[in-house]
Automatic annotation (TrEMBL):
Ranges where the Luciferase-like domain occurs: 5-242
PANTHER family for the chain: ALKANESULFONATE MONOOXYGENASE (PTHR42847), ALKANESULFONATE MONOOXYGENASE-RELATED (PTHR42847:SF4)
Protein name stated in the entry: F420-dependent oxidoreductase-like protein
Highest rank taxon of the organism: Bacteria
UniProt KW keywords: Flavoprotein, FMN, Monooxygenase, Oxidoreductase
Length: 310
């Protein structure tokens, strides 16, 4: 979920300010260094958490976060410090989405190791344990197969208590909901996986079962989905915005149409159990798109919060 050609910071800031003005509750970035087309020479990579640090100072209201940061990119102790720093810079508006990572070509292009899928899941579980443990206070130690913390007595100190919200999600039926049940403030059901709203409902149910297995009340967690969107006041405007959606899978699960049709599509997700929906915006320069959604969609949806993601 990255702008098709990357972006300069000023372009990302303009979009974040537009979402703030339009009434969105949150602005989230993807954490990628390469676009969908690895041969696109115009792509401009930017570091997710560096730009979020800038947005922390240059925005005033929207919550900020990553959907999602791969565990392969940063060691968990460093990531815990980075997120805590941005949380402080924002006055307590930061959230951390963490996942296994998936884009193998991107890793090779930037010299980042890309372990097998099972190991990436192991690393996700360990990193969540390390990050939440460091945020819990001094004297934290951890010995895992991939990460070790030796009696850290000066841990990162985020502003939010007990710590910034943690988002974990995906379409896996076993390990993903089990890991999320242990660590996540929010479970993201990955709408762009197979099954549409019905599949989303089943993934939420799987997360609830995983919570009950460990004695956690599933109602303690937020439930969210990412919805690609192309909203237009006219058919031509809608078609122009739909044309930049990245893939057939994304288009098949997208909300494409008038404001009323987008409201109806979001309603399907709330009926499936989502209380938070992130609208995935593809053309970051189309600020009129953001304004239209803010004026004609957001007032008509029943959600605890709405976010924009790029």
């Amino acid at each position: 979920m990255e702008p098709r050609h990357g972006a300069r910071y000023e372009e990302i800031l303009a979009l974040a300010l537009a979402t703030e003005e339009a009434g969105f509750d949150a602005f989230f970035r993807s954490d990628h260094l390469m676009g969908v087309d690895p041969n696109d020479p115009s792509y401009r990579p930017t570091d997710c958490w560096t730009t979020l640090g800038g947005l922390a100072r240059d925005t005033s209201r929207v919550r900020l976060g990553s959907l999602v940061t791969p565990v392969t990119f940063r060691e968990p102790g460093l990531l815990a410090a980075i997120v805590a720093s941005v949380d402080d810079m924002s006055g307590g508006r930061v959230e951390l989405g963490l996942g296994t990572g998936w884009y193998e070509r991107e890793h090779h292009a930037f010299g980042i190791p890309f372990p097998a899928r099972a190991e990436r899941f192991d690393r996700l579980e360990e990193q969540l344990a390390v990050i939440s443990g460091l945020w819990s206070g001094p004297g934290f130690s951890f010995a895992g197969a991939h990460h070790r913390i030796d009696d850290n007595r000066t841990p990162p100190r985020p502003v939010q208590r007990p710590h910034p919200p943690i988002i974990v999600g995906g379409s896996g039926p076993k390990r993903t909901p089990a890991i999320a049940a242990r660590f996540a403030t929010e479970f993201n059901g990955a709408l762009t996986a197979a099954g549409g709203a019905a599949g989303l409902r089943e993934r939420f149910a799987g997360f609830a079962r995983a919570c009950e297995t460990i004695g956690r009340d599933p109602a303690d967690a937020r439930l969210s989905a990412v919805l690609p969107v192309a909203c237009g006041a006219t058919q031509a405007e809608t078609a122009r915005r739909a044309a930049v959606i990245g893939s057939e899978l994304m288009r098949a699960n997208a909300a494409i149409g008038s404001p009323a049709q987008v409201v109806e599509r979001i309603g399907e997700l709330t009926d499936a159990g989502a209380d938070t929906v992130y609208l995935h915006i593809y053309d970051i320069h189309d600020l009129d798109h953001i304004a239209l959604i803010g004026a004609e969609v957001l007032p008509h949806v029943a959600l605890s919060r709405t976010g924009a993601t790029t």
